[in-house]
Structures are given as C-alpha cells and as structure tokens.
Design a protein that fits this description.
The structure holds three protein chains of three kinds.
Chain A lengths: L1 E2 L4 E2 L21 H23 L31 H36 L3 H15 L2 H9 L7 H12 L1 H15 L2 H9 L3 H38 L9 H10 L7 H29 L1 H15 L17
Antiparallel strand pairs in A: 1-2
Helix pairs in contact in A: 1-2, 1-10, 2-3, 2-5, 2-6, 2-8, 3-6, 4-5, 5-8, 6-8, 7-8, 8-9, 8-10, 9-10, 10-11
Chain B lengths: L2 E13 L3 E14 L3 E5 L6 H8 L7 E6 L2 E2 L4 H10 E4 L13 H11 L8 H11 L16 H13 L5 E5 L7 H18 L2 E6 L2 H7 L2 E6 L2 E7 H6 L4 H9 L3 H4 L10
Helix pairs in contact in B: 3-4, 3-5, 5-6
Chain C lengths: L1 H27 L4 H8 L6 H11 L7 H13 L14 H36 L8 H10 L2 H15 L19 H38 L2 H8 L4 H39 L4 H11 L2 H29 L10
Helix pairs in contact in C: 1-12, 5-8, 5-10, 5-12, 6-8, 7-8, 7-10, 8-10, 9-10, 10-11, 10-12, 11-12
Classes of the chains: A mainly alpha, B alpha/beta, C mainly alpha.
Chain lengths: 324, 266, 328
C-alpha cells in the first residue's frame, strides 16, 4: 500500500463483478441443494400433472386383480379391491404437496410477521410477542390438531393447511426474533436510521435480505413437518379418506392387513414421504452450509490433508510435521 | 452556519431493572460549522452516548440539545430535515454497510431520501461522491465484502456527505483501520471539512490524531468533561490529572512531545 | 434470581393460556354430542356428572361466560375433569391417571436413550470430520424424515409378525396381573421393546445431525485449539471442551421439541396399542368422547410444560451465562 499526497491507494481484494438479485439465491447453488430441489421438482410435476398421467383411476375397483404383487400392468401392484397403487401414489402427490407448501407459506408468513416485529421492537411489546410465540411452541401440536381436525366433516386442503400452520408457526418465529434482535443492533441498521429511513423500509429493504437464509430454512422445515403431520392425520383416519394422499394409502393398507406380506402396498407410500423429506432436508443442508461456512469446509479440509499424507488425528486442529 | 448545542445534558441508563448507570453528567458544548472539535476519552467514558444522542438513536434524560437554537425534532418532516443536516460516520467499517446491498444502494438512499438532486441526476451524483472520497467509479456495483476496510470507510464518509449536511459526527472513524492508512483517511476528512465548511465532532481515544485534526479538544472521563480548550493547549499543557494520564499513556512521542520542557515524556 | 422469576412467570402464563384455550375450545366447535349423548342416556348419568359436564362444556348454560370460567377453574382445582362418555362414565381423571404412567415411561426412557446415543454419535462424527464416519450423515438424514408411524408398522412386521421376536402390542401380556414383581416388570420391558426401538430410531437422526453441526462449529473456536495446545488428551478436549459447549443448544432444542416428541409417541401408542395417553386419545376421537379429549389435552400440555421447566433448570445449571439477564 502506498501513501500519496492526495490520497491512499489501498490494496484491492480480488474483485468479483457485481452480481445482483441472483446472489440472494446463491444459497441454493451447492450440490446438496440442487439435488434436493431436483427431487422436489419431480414431485411437483407429479402433483401438477398427476391425475393426467396416472395409468388408472385410483378409485377404480377391479375385482379380477386383487392383492397382486407388481406386474407390468400394475407397476406397484394392487390393493385388496384391485385398485392400482401406482395411480394412488401419483394422484396422492398433489394432496401432500399442496398442503405441505400451503402450510409452509402460511406458517412462514405468520412467523416473519410475529418474529421480525418482536425482534425489532423492544421492551414490553417484544416480550409480549415472545410470550405469545412461546405459548404456541409449548402447546403440543398433534393432539390439538387431532382434536380440531376431528371437528370438521370434510376439511378442504386450505383448511388443513391453515390448522397445521397455526400449530407450526412458532418455531420459525422464535428463530427469526433472535436473528432480528441481533441484526437490529448492527451498525448498518443504525446507519439506516441515522439516514432517516422509514421503519418499514428498514425492515423490508435492509433487514429482510439478511434474514433470507433463516426464513428459507424455516420454510423448508415447516413444509417437512406439515407433510409428516398431514400424512399422519390421514393414516389415523382423522382427516377424511375421500381425498387421496399417501397417508390415506397407508390407512387402507393397515385396515386390510397389508403388513407384513403385501409390501408393495405399504412400502412405496412411506418411501415417498421419506424421499420428499430427504429432498427438503438436503435443501436445508445446502442453506446451512451457505450460512455457516465452517460446515462447508470441515470435511474438505480434512480430506485434503489426508491426501497429502497428514492424518488429522482428531479432526480438531491438523498439525503438520515440520520435519517434512 | 449551523450550530449544535449540548446544554447540561445528562444520560442515565437503567440496567438490571433497578440499578442506574450515569453515562453522561451535565455535559455542555457547542459544535459549529467550520470548526472541528475532538472528543477524547477511553472506552466507557460516554463518547458514543453523545454520538447517539446527537443522532437521535438515544435521547437525553435531562438537559437539552439544540440545533440553531431549536430543540432537535422527534418526528415528521422536521426530523427528516434534521437528519439531512446532521450525519454520522460509524466506527466499524465492516459493520456499518449492509452486506446485501451494493455501494450504489448505500449512496443512493440518502440522495433519494433527502431529495438532494433530481431523480435523473442521482446516478451522476453517486459517481461524484465516489470521486470526492477518492474511490474509483467501478466500485459502484460492488458489495461491501469486496472492498477493503479503508475503502469501506471512505464509502461511509461519502454516504454521510451525500445529503450535503452542515455537521458531521465521526465516531472513531479510523480506530478499526490499519495504522498505515489512518492518516490518509483523516486527511481526507480534513480536506472535506474545509471544502464544505462542515462542523465536525471527531470522537476518538487517540490524543495524537485529536490534536492533528481538530481546533478544540474536550476530554471526557466517566461522563464528565474534565478539560477543554484549544488543541495545542490541552495537549501541551494539560491541567487535569486525567488528561495528563492520557498524554502519558500515548505511545507517540514525535507528534505530541515536541516541547523543550523535559523533552520526552515526564 | 430474576432469571428464574421471569421463567416462572412465563410458565404460569402458558399454563393459564392452555387452560383458557381448553375452556373455549369446545364452546367454539360446532356440534354438541354431549347433549345428544345425554339425551340418549338419560337416567344413567348422575346429576353431579351432568353438572360438571355442563360447566366444562357450557351446555345450555344460562350463566354468563365469566361465571362459567370461574366455575371451570373451581372444577379443575378439585381435580374434576368430567366423566368419560366412552369409558362407561368413569371419571376422566381416573382414565388419564391410568394411562399417564405408561406414556411417561415410554416417552421418557426412549427419548433419553435417543438423546444420549444421538449426541454421542454426533459428537464422534463431528470430531472426525471428513472421515468415513461422515457416511452416517445421510443415514441419519433419512431416519429423521421417515414417517414414524410407517417405520413402526414395518418394525412390527419384521420383528414381530415375521420373526416373532417381540410382541406387537400392549404393555403386558393378556391375563397378566399388574404388580411390582420382577416377572411383571420383565414382561413390561419385553412389550415396550419395539415401541421404544421405533421411537429411538426415528428421533435419533435429528440428534445426531444437530450435535454434529454444533461440534463442527465449536471445534473452530480458539478455546479448543488452546486446549489441544495445552497438551490435553484428545478425548478430554472432545468431551470436556468441545462437547460440553456444543451440547447446550441441543438441550435447549430438546426442551422445545418435547411437544413434538409427545406427538410422535402418541402415534406410536396408537399403532402398538400401548395403553398410554395416545391410545386413549385415539379411542376418544373415534368415539367423539369430548370430556376425555379435553381432559387429555390439558394433561398433555401441562406435562410438556413441566418437562420444559425441568429442561430449563438443567440448562441453567449447565450454562452459567444463561443465568445472567439478557440485555437487548
């Protein structure tokens, strides 16, 4: 660095050409996220086009082909009434995905509203919102959902998503409150206030972009929980069995003694739920690694060291032998 | 000519519900255009509290703060006008810029908020601001993490000057920069102050730069102004024991102790 | 001390909120099966029972709401939760008292086992970054997303129906009389093997991943490097320095996840016909036995609250920082 009479030329770090809006989504760029998103993409397509590409009507009864193991005609076999299980799975995708993502959207909206506000205001108002969040957090969700859902005769997807959202928003709100509180005291927010930025702009333009990772992670987590809760409700029989979703398939499987022999009936549905869950978890990992770069490099560093013949004995601090 | 007056300001913080911390005790001073006042004190002396009260991030418990004779406004258009006149440069260049936004965004906001230029002129003005702080125009699309500490602090200065204020509060502007570039940034500040006839409150814990840069020095200890006066007087002939302590603790003999009396530190 | 009073105040508030929600819930839901039931079974229900039902559910209650609320609290403090419509008019509190120990035993033991194993495995994986132990991570991920009821059914089919190693349902054999004898306890353990195993499997994944992430973050901290430089044995550094700090957020999320754990256990009980709260709730839902449903919800919520308090106490003991006031 040199000091000149008129000014200073500082050493300029490696310059990267300006990115823009896309940079907000760089958290999705690593391999884990991409894999997860790809799997979700497949299921989304199924959800949209399901009823059109399913080979059979899921309700169609065919008494000539009951309880059949997978064949070419029925790739996943049939139920005790001869219904094609593959079609049930494909058509059932829509119910699962719609409720899952709707619930995710509702719950995340509430969480952002309550959490960010609670984090930004201070004193009694913040404590009150925090207490509200904690109440919803502590009250166990599943029993409440069961009781409430059993009140309705034929809940549609929006209603189910809504009930699930009401029991599920609290976790995200709590995390967002903590993040917002730590952001609020950061200098650049103070600088925005000194600038004279109106409150709404501070929250929307200055704070929210920095909260994106947390919001995304919370959304993904909520969707996972919603899908699990919804399929559980369907399995237990609390939500009506007229709409097809993967939980309903398992409900029928269990009622008709599919366990353990008729593996084609119960395995695919459970595996699909797990697969969607894994995809969502992968996306979450991707976000985690973006937010916490230590996770990213942890394994890479150790592997690189091993390649050079140094065994990082405890994985904590690799100490190189200087006698090399 | 803009004047900011602190009149018998005290600030109490309430901690742990019952205990009180007296951060400022009956502090008075006047900041006017064209003059630089240095506010010197160690951590916890209350320097940052004064900055926060001036920028309305906190408010005084007792006493008054007046801009051109009027109490500083608390809301509305008057507050907006106040914020246009009184600006701040923060201490930590790594924290005072929003990591998500470009440099352009940081410089545009005050221009737009205070209608400094017509909307069509904003882009040109941004480039002009960058030039004033000796930064090249191609930094405009970068994000803070792509800039060095010194560059970031210059952006912060540009942001503060964007609204064409009358008064500037510089809260330890070079404390977190590499020693070798501090002088450059301070010289820039001095030059900008002369050009725009700003009144600058230079907050620092470093006596040496305080003398170099300002007309008047105020020494703050635990919320109380223990000594004040023209810079040379305070440095060369400190009256108060605390000021003498500060001077003696300073590791920079060349700038300060050029007096014949005793030569080096006594 | 202030810390504890704040937490105590919060928990009291939550308890009050839960009880109040419980009060309003049946009044907000449509349909009134209680009245229908009473109409069908007149003469079989004692006047006192009708009275308490009336207070609990607000049937044809001419008193103003706040008065009903007041009476409701009176009932609760006396331990009267109404009578169960589906269990032969037995008092709800009796039904719950009979089921609660089973659930506590199953949840408590299974969760603690899962937490210990998961945390230990997560510690080791985090410690040995980049090694082959990392292969556990995808497995743990998969386990954490598998629907627990599905896994339960598979576990039954494999270990019970096919291999006949363990019984598939109930807490003890038919015809066995409950007592504190070793045989009975052995029988109970035998029957709880599969449900506990399923619960442990499904929750293991979450603990492993959480602990691993925390370990990786903590291991980068300077105090771990210092500990190593001091010459402490690797085990001591891992256990005494790294894990000790990494486990704190785990404990915190443990307390918060109790609500979810309870939900999962309920489903387990439904599948394994384990006579805990879950099974009773399921039966109550099917039978539209509102007094029982309402009583169970209350008891479950209060239990989760108590568990949260215990977890908070443990956390406060282990982390001196949390005892200080958080200044925001």
């Amino acid at each position: 660095m040199s000091v000149t009479a008129t000014g200073v030329t500082d050493a300029v770090p490696v310059s990267v050409s300006g990115r823009s809006f896309r940079e907000g989504f760089s958290m999705f760029r690593n391999a884990k996220s991409v894999t997860g998103l790809a799997i979700l993409g497949v299921f989304t397509l199924l959800a949209i086009f399901g009823p059109f590409i399913a080979p059979y009507d899921p309700d169609a009864i065919d008494l000539l082909h009951r309880n059949e193991a997978p064949t070419f005609a029925h790739l996943l076999g049939t139920t005790h009434m001869g219904q094609d299980i593959l079609s049930q799975i494909i058509v059932g995708t829509r119910g699962v995905m719609v409720v899952g993502f709707l619930c995710g959207i509702f719950a995340t909206l509430i969480a952002v509203l309550v959490g960010v506000t609670a984090g930004y205001v201070s004193g009694a108002r913040s404590e009150a919102l925090s207490a509200l969040t904690n109440v919803f957090l502590v009250i166990p969700g599943l029993p409440l959902i069961i009781i409430v859902a059993s009140q309705f005769q034929d809940p549609n997807v929006v209603l189910i998503a809504g009930v699930l959202a009401i029991t599920g928003w609290a976790w995200g709100a709590r995390v967002l409150r903590a993040q917002t509180m730590s952001l609020r005291n950061r200098d650049f927010i103070q600088a925005a206030r000194v600038n004279g930025e109106p409150l709404l702009r501070i929250i929307a333009v200055e704070m929210l972009p920095n909260l994106l990772a947390v919001i995304a992670s919370s959304f993904v987590g909520t969707v996972t929980a919603a899908i699990l809760a919804q399929t559980t409700l369907a399995f237990v029989g609390v939500t009506p069995i007229s709409n097809w979703n993967w939980g309903t398939i398992l409900f029928w499987a269990q009622s008709n003694n599919a366990f353990p022999d008729k593996w084609w009936w119960y395995l695919p549905a459970g595996l699909c739920i797990a697969l969607v869950g894994v995809a969502l978890a992968l996306v979450n990992f991707g976000i985690d690694e973006y937010v916490n770069p230590r996770l990213r490099s942890a394994g890479l560093r150790a592997r690189a060291l091993r390649k050079r013949g140094i065994t990082p004995s405890h994985g904590a601090t690799a100490v190189a032998d200087t006698r090399d | 000519m803009t004047t900011l007056e602190f009149r018998n300001v005290s600030k109490k913080y309430r901690i742990r519900g019952s205990r009180e911390l007296l951060a400022l005790d009956d502090v008075s001073f006047t900041l006017e255009s064209g003059r630089t006042i240095a506010l010197v004190g160690q951590s916890g002396s209350g320097k940052s509290t004064i900055a926060k009260i001036i920028t309305r991030l906190e408010s005084a418990t007792t006493g008054s703060v007046l801009l051109d004779g009027e109490p500083i406004p608390s809301r509305g258009r008057a507050l907006r006008a106040y914020r246009q006149q009184v600006r701040m440069v923060f201490q930590d260049p790594f924290a005072s810029l929003n990591p998500y936004h470009t440099i352009r965004h940081h410089l545009e906001r005050p221009l737009r908020l205070h209608h400094v230029v017509a909307p069509g002129e904003v882009d040109a003005e941004v480039l002009r601001l960058l030039d004033r702080v000796r930064l090249s125009a191609d930094l405009v699309e970068r994000r803070p993490h792509e800039l060095s500490g010194g560059q970031r602090q210059r952006v912060a200065i540009a942001r503060a000057l964007a609204s064409r204020p009358g008064l500037l509060i510089a809260d330890e502007p070079v404390s977190m920069l590499d020693v070798s570039i501090r002088l450059g940034v301070l010289n820039l500040l001095a030059e900008l102050q002369r050009e725009s006839n700003l009144g600058v409150l230079y907050i620092t814990h470093d006596l040496a730069t305080a003398r170099h840069f300002s007309d008047e020095i105020m020494v703050l200890n635990s919320g109380v102004v223990v000594e004040r006066g023209p810079s040379d007087d305070v440095i060369l002939n400190p009256q108060h024991a605390y000021t003498r302590q500060l001077r003696d603790a300073s590791p920079n003999p060349d700038v300060l102790f050029s007096t014949p009396k005793g030569g080096s530190r006594s | 001390m202030r810390f504890f009073t704040r937490r105590a105040a919060f928990y009291l508030f939550t308890a009050w909120a839960a009880i109040t929600i419980n009060f309003f819930l049946p009044r907000m839901l449509k349909g009134d099966p209680i009245t229908a039931y009473l109409a069908r079974n007149q003469g079989k229900v004692s006047p006192e029972a009708i009275d308490s039902l009336r207070v609990l559910f607000g049937l044809d209650n001419p008193k103003p709401v706040w008065q009903q609320y007041f009476d409701y609290w009176g009932l609760l403090l006396r331990g009267d939760l109404g009578v169960s419509l589906s269990k032969g008019l037995a008092p709800v509190s009796d039904v719950i008292a009979g089921a609660l120990p089973w659930t506590l035993g199953l949840v408590g033991v299974a969760t603690i086992i899962s937490f210990i194993i998961g945390t230990a495995v997560g510690t080791i994986i985090g410690w040995r970054r980049g090694s082959r132990a990392e292969a556990i991570v995808p497995i743990a991920t998969f386990l954490s997303t598998v629907p627990y009821f599905w896994l339960g059914l598979i576990v039954i089919s494999v270990f019970s129906t096919t291999l006949h190693w363990f019984p598939a349902s109930h807490a003890y054999g038919k015809g066995v009389v409950p007592s504190f004898s070793p045989e009975f306890i052995g029988d109970v353990l035998y029957h709880s093997a599969l449900p506990a195993f399923t619960i442990v499997l499904t929750s293991l994944g979450g603990w492993i991943l959480g602990m691993r992430n925390m370990m990786v973050t903590v291991l980068d901290e300077d105090y771990v490097t210092v500990a190593q430089a001091k010459g402490l044995s690797p085990f001591r550094v891992m256990y005494g320095y790294a894990a000790r700090n990494a486990v704190l957020p785990q404990l915190s999320s443990f307390a918060l996840s109790l609500g979810f754990i309870v939900g999962g256990t309920l489903i387990m009980e439904m599948i394994f016909s384990y006579p805990g709260l879950g099974l009773r709730l399921f039966e109550a839902t099917l039978a539209k036995d509102y007094p029982l449903m309402q009583g169970m919800f209350l008891v479950i919520t209060l239990s989760v609250l108590v568990a949260n308090i215990l977890a908070d106490v443990v956390y406060a003991i282990m982390d001196p920082r949390s005892r200080q006031e958080a200044t925001s």
